[in-house]
Amino acid sequence: MKFPAVSLLALSVSMTLALAVNPASAAKPTAPTFDPKRLSNDVKVLSSDEFEGRGPATEGETKTVDYVVAQMKAAGLKPGGDLKDGKREWTQAVPLARAEIKGTPQVSVKVAGKAQALTQGEQIAVRAAQNGTTAIDIANAPLVFVGYGVKAPERNWDDFKGVDLKGKIAVVLINDPDFESGQGDFGGKAMTYYGRWTYKYEEAARQGALGLLIVHETAPASYGWATVKNSNTNTMFDVVRDDPASVHPTMEGWIQRDFAAALFKGAGQDFDALKKQAATRDFKPVELKGATLSAKYDVNREVITSHNIVGRIDGAKRPDETVIYSGHWDHLGVGQPDAKGDTIYNGAVDNATGIAAMLELARGFAKAPAPDRSIVFLAVTAEEKGLLGSEYYASKPLYPLGKTVAVINMDALDPHGPARNFTTSGSAKQELLDQLVTTAKQWNLDYVTDPKPEAGHFFRSDHFPFAKRGVPAISFGSGNDLVDGGLEAGKKMEDAYVADRYHQPADQWEASWTFTGMARDLQLLYTVGHDLADSDRWPNWDSASEFRAARDATASDRK
């Protein structure tokens, strides 16, 4: 298999980085050199306007699949997707339920007899119904505040306490009850799954609510209103379910914090006071007396087929044992215009960087002799719609999860210069993370635990569907202690991205991006994956991990 020639520039960059970060590593390289220019080009192509924001089931998906498959073929990979007539294809078909609001939704609230029309994307962000309904017609539904919307028997916690939500709209806070104080029954600042918006919609459906509105606040959500608006007012997707109403109430949406506070005040309640009460086990649901919501809009609903893209290198000795590198190829597609009138959500950092990284790793592995175990490069769809592509693969794996050694996920990597550290989404204790931390010492890279555990990143990346089924899995994150500028520069860059680019049309490729940090980090990720693929080790979760039992249940597969 041919490997594209490494440019002199890339070789020079790699040697410079190696000497700067770890002088000893220059004498004993442990991984191939990865090309910053090639990384830049892949990101530039995938995030160009021509790819229309890489929305699932659009022309942008077709172009993305064609490009990624072409690069995998050029690298020397084999197709690793669905079996057809005894042969593997390059993709795995992923059936999805697509829902889209027709026109502009008509939504209003009435407080003390006074009606107020709400503007989609301003005070409220209404999602297209995913419970199977195609016509929403809600008239004067009562509003009930149910705290954080959590029912956790194992924590002796119930925000609902027997309230009847039939025909009513529940209003909840984002994140966990511990967020404000940093201590309590929900892991302190670190978000549990109860803090995720996906859980809150599911629980509202289980409680029989007609609808659920989540109050947005930037700190506990970990992103601004622009992200909420752009992520929830466009086309919605879900996996195809036998009973979608069991996990989706009829109406789902978000409301701005200031609007919520005014709404509560009009109903004779103090938002901040109720928020403090909601952080306690004794909280009881509060009906917002005299406050109702009305909504009318139609929804186009259909089942479409999107695709995961799958390339493979067969293991030389144990090809039925698999190491997976993953990342999502999709972004938000075409949506509402920003202040400049741009409607294409290009998704350069999120996540053209992860796909570019995957392609570079594929090129590196294809150049080397085949390892003992197989390597799968899995580019998944519909991450932005709730990790749907990875959830589909994990629920219907092409290669048995019991013999999947590990998953290394890459999402929104830093395209600038190198850092002295790195992180992961969440910090669940497991041997795979231990190996990553130990291997990183070859480059004098320090590991820092997830700097924002309250953001719940562990539940927001494509490694999670694998983790909850027991497969050792991590999602790698670029460091913030930059070689050029230190922590101050790294934090400034990170904050600016979240505020000005994340899930916005401004997430575009920049000619100034050097990609030298990614090129160095890929040496670490390559080494970890290669060492696993050339060994007979099976990393596991810590004995106290909530994922250990699921892994141990498949132990017989690994004998």
- Unreliable spans are 1-29
Question: With helices defined by DSSP (H or I, 4 residues minimum), what is the helix count?
Answer: 15
What is the 3D shape?
globular
E-strand count? 23
Kindly estimate the percentage of residues that lie in beta strands according to DSSP. Answer: 15-25%
What does this molecule look like?
This protein is α/β, with parallel strands linked by helices and 559 residues long. The strands form four sheets. The protein has a 17-stranded mixed β-sheet that branches. The protein has a two-stranded antiparallel sheet with strand order 2-3. Strands 9-10 form a two-stranded antiparallel sheet. Helix 11 links the parallel strand 21 and strand 22. Helix 2 crosses helix 9, helix 3 packs parallel to helix 9 and helix 9 packs across helix 14. The longest helix is centred in the middle third of the chain and has 20 residues. The N terminus is likely disordered. Pfam families: Peptidase_M28. This is M28 family peptidase. InterPro entries: M28_fam, PA_dom_sf, Peptidase_M28.
Summarize the structure.
Helix content is 29%, strand content 25%. By secondary structure, it is an alpha/beta fold.
Main attributes of the structure:
alpha/beta; aminopeptidase; PA_dom_sf; disordered N terminus; zinc; 559 residues; metal-binding; 17-stranded mixed sheet; hydrolase; 29% helix; two-stranded antiparallel ribbon
